[in-house]
Amino acid sequence: MTSSEIRQAFLNFFKSKGHTIVPSAPIVVKNDPTLLFTNAGMNQFKDYFLGNKTPEHKCIADTQKCLRVSGKHNDLEEVGVDTYHHTMFEMLGNWSFGDYFKKEAIAWSWELLTEVYQLDKDRLYVTIFEGDAKEGLKKDEEAFNEWKKYVPEERILLGNKKDNFWEMGDTGPCGPSSEIHFDSRSDEERKRVNGATLVNADNPQVIEIWNNVFIQFNRMKDGSLELLPSKNVDTGMGFERLVRVIQGKQSNYDTDVFSGTIKEIEKITGKQYDGSDSKQAIAFRVLADHIRAIAFTIADGQLPSNTGAGYVIRRILRRAVRYYYSYLDYKQPLLFQLVPVIAKQFEQVFPELQQQADFVSKVVKEEEDAFLRTLEKGIAKFNDIVDPKHFMVEPTKRIGGISAFILNDTYGFPIDLTQLMAKEIGWEVDMQGYEEALQQQKNRSRAATAIDTEDWVLLHDNSLNEFVGYDSLEVNTRVNQYRKVKIKGKDLYQIVLQKTPFYAESGGQVGDKGKLIFGNEEIDVIDTKKENNLIIQFTEKLPAVIGGEVTAIVPRGRRQDIAVHHSATHLLHAALRKVLGTHVAQKGSLVNNEYLRFDFSHFAKVTDEEITQIEAIVNEKIRENIPVIIKYMNREEAMQTGAMALFGEKYGDVVRVVTIDPSYSIELCGGTHVGATGELGFFKIKHETAVAAGVRRIEAVTGKAAEDFVDEQLAELNIAKAALRNPKQLSKSIESLLAEQSELKKKLESLEAKLSNNLEGELLQKATTISDITFIGGTVEVSSADVLKKLANDLSKKANGAIVLCASINSKASVAVALDESLLSKGLDANKIIKEQIAPLIKGGGGGQKTLATAGGQDSSNFQQVIDRVKGLL
Ligand code: ATP
Ligand code: MG
């Protein structure tokens, strides 16, 4: 079976068992403060397990793009070193939400593996939870008895809490699990060593392929377990591992999931992949793996950046670059060349990559270029660290822990690269110091992001949590649940209402603020966010009485200011596609009450003429006062209207379609909008800039904010006019002012040249001789540090001597030291003199070359000391 056939067989099998097949959620997670990336198939169903939402279907199956490089699951350092952990992988899964339980789940996994995939029964091992006395949990007899129907008892192994009890996080749904492992060793090996002893023992040939979790508890904040009202099944099977065992390979990289990419890398680098444990073979695996993670996350809308999810992508990419740079001897961008191969390979399963292949390649290439430059700087830094000139005595030949850490953190050097380079010159690295520095940084970043949440206090059945804020800004309702949270050291409360007019931050639109009125007590809502699908109001305090009725109010003014910017975003998006082309796709947006920010894919700067055209189209649409029509329809229907869906968004079966003139703009969108475009009044673009490779950003204003912006600009213009005494043509008058200024500058320069000739003459006469060296020192009046430097340099040549000149320029101290070449042999060094002797005297800094160096500082009162100091050195 090919890998595509294997994937399809899984989906078909569960379809035949009454499951609905759903698409993979995006790999980048939104609306979940505990997760940056999808790391398991169940993530997108969290709300079902938490009871916040009732599932539309009780039995579901899919293949989910997962990434395990941050948080609870982080496999990054294993990837490529071993042959079965990936950064991005597909997790095949089937779920029961209160439908079937252990009996069916176990029977079906056995049927699929042994009958559909025909895996060798006596190479399969299963594990079940052995119980845990401390937790008061018993052995999972139910699973044990089900397995006994198919598997001889000696291959049903007991596992402890670590391996066989799955928890979503510190709190939340959890339960015992049952794993299925496959032994792919040769028959002789299997006879020699019993496979049962190798399960869960990190043997690369005896690996876990499938985990069945039986979610029956909820873990509370105090650590206790509550029984869940309905029992759920959550399974996850690693697709790449499954393909490997079915195709009878020893490594995931030998299957057709990766072989195309590996061939391409061989072609590009001219090197051969031999599947060994050599660094070169690891590099092949790292590249073949990492490019998938990088490409799919960028296609899902996450660009590499310096923080959060973007930083994780950047780290993966850098790891790949370091591997080809160090071990495949390839010093130019490579990864971007692999994008077309995987885009094609996954065209049928995850078409989003093929649809954006050019864009993704471009972003990847730019990142590679930038990092290759950093690497070169890092190599220079490394050479500097080990440069003997920094050592007073014989160097220790040991790179300090902090230095190794800086190489890693700032220059992206992995520690093994630093060790390798050190070894090449007979040095070593202080590994203990390095580990300490690393640990300290980890502690710092953990403290910065720590969020501490208490258990929800439930007041009412929590399944009702409805957003009514499209139509009403004020409702009477009740609090369903609330809890205290500590975010960055600040105590806040989260309140969930049965009905809420508060829009929760999403799709780029900020959350609503407003008031909750409990009797005669008013509480401010400072923000509204979603956690998965739960709408949460944030407040700084709780009312005295929370159980009764509450009036929730969103102020109309702020909401309207947000709505105009959101509708303007749609008008802008359509105008961009008209003026720049249909390659324009949204890459991010922010909509608030003051402005809008819109990021989109486009490969060149948007010119001034294009900006004018875009503004004209949007303002035209505003004047047409087009009604904004909002409809709910099913996904397929919406797509047929030509609606634009965004990559990396998860849409349900029913979508909300916002139309502003069916021939102009149709978008899937959950945001709040105006009734008709006339409400926007006027639209103006403030800035156009670059954000990343191939991504531009526009900031714009509309409504009252646009009026304010234009007023400010005009006020500024009026000030400028007044300053020039209200000329008829402002631009002409500025031009002539500039021309005049440059004329004056030229005159000044020629005057100064004459003056400094005189000055030179005067100074030459002051020359004295100290231990056979001609010395000139003095304080002079010049207009710039450059003139001072030139003067000192000229004098040193003319006098064949040592010169120190001081000047106070714009109340700052400037010093220049110049030495004739002939003095270098006497051990004099202008750079050292400036840095070590002069800079502290004038409270500043500086540097230069051995023959000429300058310093600038705050203190001009010590010039005599400066001159004496240099004199003394001779
Ligand atoms: P392992 O112990 O091998 O790391 P796990 O216990 O972390 O696996 P689960 O969290 O149970 O795995 O995930 C379910 C399945 O997903 C596993 O049985 C495995 O087949 C697959 N899987 C887990 N992590 C990875 C990974 N990094 N790369 C590829 N497949 C993986
Ligand atoms: Mg793992």
From TrEMBL:
GO terms for molecular function: alanine-tRNA ligase activity; aminoacyl-tRNA deacylase activity; ATP binding; tRNA binding; zinc ion binding. Zn(2+) binds at residues 566, 570, 669, 673. Binds 1 zinc ion per subunit. Pfam families: DHHA1, tRNA-synt_2c, tRNA_SAD. Residues 1-712 form the Alanyl-transfer RNA synthetases family profile domain. Keywords: Aminoacyl-tRNA synthetase, ATP-binding, Cytoplasm, Ligase, Metal-binding, Nucleotide-binding, Protein biosynthesis, RNA-binding, tRNA-binding, Zinc. GO terms for biological process: alanyl-tRNA aminoacylation. Consists of three domains; the N-terminal catalytic domain, the editing domain and the C-terminal C-Ala domain. The editing domain removes incorrectly charged amino acids, while the C-Ala domain, along with tRNA(Ala), serves as a bridge to cooperatively bring together the editing and aminoacylation centers thus stimulating deacylation of misacylated tRNAs. Catalyzes the attachment of alanine to tRNA(Ala) in a two-step reaction: alanine is first activated by ATP to form Ala-AMP and then transferred to the acceptor end of tRNA(Ala). Also edits incorrectly charged Ser-tRNA(Ala) and Gly-tRNA(Ala) via its editing domain. HAMAP family: Ala_tRNA_synth_B. This is Alanine--tRNA ligase. It comes from Ilyomonas limi. The lineage of its organism: Bacteria, Pseudomonadati, Bacteroidota, Chitinophagia, Chitinophagales. The gene is alaS.
